[in-house]
Amino acid sequence: MKRGAVIGIAAGALALVVAGGAAWWLLSRPATAEQTAEAYLHALSTGDAAGVRGLLAQEPDGFDAIAASFQDADAYLQEYDFEVQDDDSVRAEGTLGGEPAVIGFTLTETGEGWRVDADYLATLDVTTTIGDAVRVGGALVPAGAVSLLPAVYTVEAAPAGLVDGSTSVVVTNAAPATAAVDASLSPDAAASIQEQLDAYIASCTQSAATVPAHCGIRVPWAADLATLASVSFRVDTAPVLALAPDARTFAATGGVLVATATGTTRDGSPGTFTYRADDWALRGTVEITGDTMTLAVG
């Protein structure tokens, strides 16, 4: 039989095939609702955040964080079956973390074919005993209601390295999930914070024209001098940090500080006086915001 002629049109999306006197229009059709549902569930089962993104009718705010958490999840949907309902909703049953799981979402038909439209995100309600944020997978997120794709996640306390505590949770959109992180200061936290406090103490004890504020330093120079020209310090023993168990306050105590004040006495002559404090201490509050711990000296 004589080979027919093939004319490609629009980069192969549409072609006219002529062979043996007959002709057919071959049209590359968009995926069906069932094929779109299968593609979405496959992306969920393989941790393919980019694949999920490409199937959404509209990308929600904050999807980058959702994708980052999903890519670092512990386990994904497996062994699933699904059905597309008459109202274009999809119900999938499978396993997640070794347990039965139900996942639902709704499809919508767009000018580019079927897309995942609504009800696909799950909600995880997170609480932590320290700070106002946690890490879910690879993303730092505020504590409270967190939107996620269905998967198994490790929820960790933040800031990492300063606060310990984690829990694992199975997240589906069949019902809201909860995760309570029992956070505590890490063994290395005190040493790390002490290092930062030492740097602050070093700035407090530089020679200056006035006694520095918010450094726990009191120099009674006014008892001996009419005016103060300068004050210098010698740290004999630095205060040692102790954090409250709830990490809300701190006290650095046991410091020994020698201050030398120079100025003018009441009779107008120059004078220099030395003062020693054997109870030098700094106290204040601890604020943990996101991935940062800040000490505020009172």
Structure description:
The chain contains 4 helices and 21 strands. With 298 residues, the chain is of the alpha+beta class. The strands form 6 sheets. Strands 17, 18, 19, 20 and 21 form a 5-stranded antiparallel sheet that branches. A 4-stranded antiparallel sheet has the order 4-5-6-7, covered by helices on one side. It is rod-shaped and about 100 Å long. The chain starts with a strand and ends with a strand.
Task: State the gist of this model.
With 298 residues, this protein is an alpha+beta fold. The protein has helices at 33-46, 49-54, 63-71, 189-204; strands spanning 5-9, 14-19, 22-27, 78-84, 89-96, 99-110, 113-118, 122-128, 133-136, 139-142, 144-148, 151-157, 163-164, 166-171, 177-181, 184-185, 227-237, 240-243, 249-264, 270-289, 292-297. The chain has 4 helices and 21 strands.
Question: What's the structural blueprint in terms of helices and strands?
Answer:
Elements: E1 5-9, E2 14-19, E3 22-27, H1 33-46, H2 49-54, H3 63-71, E4 78-84, E5 89-96, E6 99-110, E7 113-118, E8 122-128, E9 133-136, E10 139-142, E11 144-148, E12 151-157, E13 163-164, E14 166-171, E15 177-181, E16 184-185, H4 189-204, E17 227-237, E18 240-243, E19 249-264, E20 270-289, E21 292-297
Parallel strand pairs: 8-15
Antiparallel strand pairs: 1-2, 2-3, 4-5, 5-6, 6-7, 8-11, 9-10, 9-12, 12-14, 13-16, 17-19, 18-19, 19-20, 20-21
